[in-house]
Amino acid sequence: MRAVLASEWLKLRSVGSTGYAVGAASLVTVLGIGWTLYVASLADEHGSVTAAAPEVGFLPLAQISLAVLGVLAITSEQASGMLRTSLAAVPRRGRLLFAKAVVVGGVTLAAGTAILISTYTISRLIAGDRALGFNQTGLLDGLPTVLASSLSVAVLALVGLGLGAATRSTAAGIVSVVSLLFVLPGVANYLPAPWNTRIASIMLPNLTSQIAGERLSRRLGDGVLPPWAALLVLIAYGAAALLAGYLLLRRRDA
Q: What residue spans define the domains of the chain?
C-alpha cells in the first residue's frame, strides 16, 4: 500500500494542474488581505463596520479550487488512458481509489488549513483593535470555524474525486460539485416550510458554521444541527461520492 500511496503522491505533485488549483485557492489570502484593508479603512472613517470575515466570505473559492483538483486527480487519467496503466500496476480498483483519496484528502486538508489560518491570522493582525464585524472576539476564538472550514475543503476535494470517478468527465464532475455547493442550497430555500429549513441545514455551505457551533441565520430556526450531526453529514457527502465512484469504476472498463 505504501508504494501505491507514493505513486499517487508522485502523480499528483508532478502535474501542473495541482499547482494551479492550490494557487487559485491561495488567492483567498490575497483577497482576504485586500478585503480587510478596505473594511479597516471604512472603520477608520465611521468608527465601526459590520462585515463578513474574509476566511468565511472567500471560503467558496478555496472549496471549488481544490474540489477541481480532486476531480482532475481521476478524470485526467481517464481521459489520457493512463488509468489503464495504473490499473495494470494496481488491479484492485478499490485500493487504487482509496490511495487517491488519501493523497488528495491529505494534500487538500494541509493546503486548505494553511490558507485559511493564514487568512484568518493576517486579517486579525491588520484589523488590530478596530471595531470590525469579524473582529469582535479574541484572536483564537474563531479557530473552530477555520478548522471546520479546512475540513470542508478536504471533503469537497474528495467529493470531486468520487464524482469524477463516477462521471468519467472533468466537466461533469466540476458541474456536479458546483451544483452541490451553489445551486442546490438556493433551490432548498424555495421549498415549503418546514422542509426549506430542514433541507437547508444539511446543505454543504451551511455545515461549517454548524460544526463550529455557531448560530446560523434565523431562517433556519429549529433546523440547526448540533455540531456532531453536522460533522457526520459533512463526512457522509465525501463517503457517498467515493462509494458511487468506486461502484461505477468497478463496473466499467478503464
A: 2-251
Query: What is the rounded distance in angstroms from the CA atom of residue 98 to the CA atom of residue 31?
Result: 34
- The amino acid that residue 128 corresponds to is G
Buried b (16+ CB within 10 A) or exposed e, 165-196: bbbbbbeebbebbeebbeeebeebeeeeeeeb
CA–CA gap between residue 164 and residue 241 (Å, rounded): 9
Distance CA 48, CA 139 (A): 18
pLDDT tens-place values along the chain, 254 residues long: 778 788 888 888 888 889 999 999 999 999 999 999 998 888 877 767 777 889 999 999 999 999 999 999 999 888 877 777 777 777 788 888 999 999 999 999 999 999 999 999 998 888 877 767 675 555 666 788 899 999 999 999 999 999 999 998 999 999 999 999 999 988 888 888 788 888 888 999 999 988 987 655 444 555 578 889 999 999 999 999 999 999 998 887 65
Give the CA distances from residue 227 to residues 54, 113, 180, 203, 231, in Å, rounded to whole numbers and listed in that order.
Answer: 22, 19, 20, 14, 6
SS3 assignment for 48-60? EECCCCHHHHCHH
Alpha helices in 128-226 (DSSP H): 143-167, 170-178, 184-188, 195-200, 204-211
Q: What angle do CA 32, 23, 29 make, to 5 degrees?
A: 15
Global confidence as pTM: 0.90
